[in-house]
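Appendix C reproduces, verbatim, an entry submitted by the partner laboratory led by Prof. M.T., so that reviewers can inspect both the input and the predicted structure.
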Amino acid sequence: AVSADTMTVLSGVPAEELHANPERNPLTEEYPEGEELRTNPMRLTFDSDHGLELLGINLVIGGFYGFMLLVVIASVLGAASTWAALQFDLAHYRRVFAARTTNNPISHWFVLLLPLLFFVLLWLTETQQSGRAQHWWQQQEVQLLIGFGIILWGLVAIRAAQPNDWGLQYPVKVGILLVLIAALVALGIWRVVENKTYFVALSSDAEQSRNLSVGILVALGVLLAAQSESAVRRAGRFEPQFAATLSLLALLLMPLYLDQGQNQVIVKVGIYILLGLGLNIVVGYAGLLDLGYVAFFALGAYAYAFLSSRQLNTDTQIPIFEGNVEMVVQLAGWVVITVIVTLVVVSVGLRLWRQRSNIPLARNSRDVIAFPTLPTRNVTALITISAVVLSALVAAVLDNAGLYQEIFESASPFLIGIMVGVVVAGLSGIALGIPVLRLRGDYLAIVTLGFGEIIRLMFTNLRDFTGGPRGILQIPRPLPDGASGAVTYLWMVYLVFIGAGLVAFCSLRLNKSRMGRAWSAMRSEETIAQSMGINLIQTKLSAFAIGAAFAGVGGVLFAANQQNIYPSDFNLSVSIDVLSLVIIGGMGSIPGVIMGAVALIGVPEMLRELETYRILVFGALLVTMVIIRPSGLLPEPPIQLQARARALVHKHSPQPRQQEGQYDTAK
């Protein structure tokens, strides 16, 4: 059903005039005299009193038919613009302009410095906490747009950086980077101390939060300085290091200059970036169309909610999820004990196996090629069973001795929730992947769509366990009791930054690994990939499991940020949004996913009036992308295999010898 607010936006008729008409006289079929009739929204008007408004501009045309007329006019103008662009070959002029600006050092460095310029602009346009009226450049929407500019131009600067040292000596390169790091870190410390914008807290003590925040900034500066000093020792690393350091510092300092509402938008965009990176593995790398991706997002959120919710029964005042504190303690003990015992058993088992097999611990490459040093399946199974049995025995001893509660009493439900959410979502991805191994294309999309709806309906109908449509309430944030001030929202921003950064790093490494090459081959053609020796079952299941695990991380962060979750938060539109941002940003491209999330999730948050037109905007963007940039806003650059092969041949080819009797005429 169309809501009154939506009909008001589409027709220009105020919501109070959209009430139901009074009942007609059954004999005369007329309305009672003196009764107010509603204004018909299905009309076409041309006056400013009933005209549609877009971004505060009155379009004069009104009514729902007026809205449809505007859509037709916009479509005709778009088609005419496309025809004009093709007719006059505007793409040629764009390529010429791009080539000239790329080869121009001034424009090139201007692009590299754009993140810094946007950060300075954000600093200058910061809203002053005073009674004076704000200028247009101090509005929250403008500041948020500048923040998104820092993110987007940071990606562009990193992509545009070239292996160039510009003839600078090593001390000069190190000096430039150290001055940049020191200036931005000092600016961040000044902001933290002056405005009390602390972003980390271990207790309710404000002074401790300030010292921790300043210490983290100093440690970050020292690490970046050491990494930069080491990186620029290699030739051609100055420009990429400069762009990456500048973009990273501008991104990390940006939340300190935004208020709570603006940072909430950043958190929402970051969570969708997490989801987009996970779906990018399934769709972009492996080529498997998944329309039920929201199911793994929901499983991660509910896993954390079950372990941490403090919701009470309204009748008995007893916790609904009674025993979740003890469960967190048990899980923390199991995880720690399993990791320690497994490391000990594996290291001891491998050492004994090497000694029994007379294989030295350190071997040169020639011996490794001649004699494989991998243990057999029986040895691997024995080590695994030993680790499981010993872990269970140690856990049972500690549990019977009553040491669990003393050792793991202070375990964080958030950390345990992340681990449980990742495991549950990953196993669910495998469970979904097994029955759809032989499906492709539209059939795979339909089955995954059904899986997403099954999970949502399960959380809706299991009222005794999940709360049903009422959801789960009072989910705590990963903050100490009594924390107040800016740390209550900045802490979530940086947690999302850390999560998105780790997921992006893992995605990048996976794409360049053997598994990533297998995904790429399977995406191109499954039959050829299988004929080349790729195990399709293992490759597909790994894509589903890893993508689902990343969605589980996003679900945990979503539940911790919202503090209340409902089954309606995990409907089909979430999967459509994530798939749209992956396609528009560029399938298989990590920077493209980030840019797509900012464009499709962040921009509508700034332009609330376009919220009703979300589906229309998605459709228009998809059509525009197919015409202008079919590979996405920031696609993955193609691998230059031909140039790489020629370079390898030239490097390893023997040089022709000069025959006797021939002389070098160049001397």
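The chain is about 65% helix and 0% strand. Additional entries are available on request from the coordinating office.
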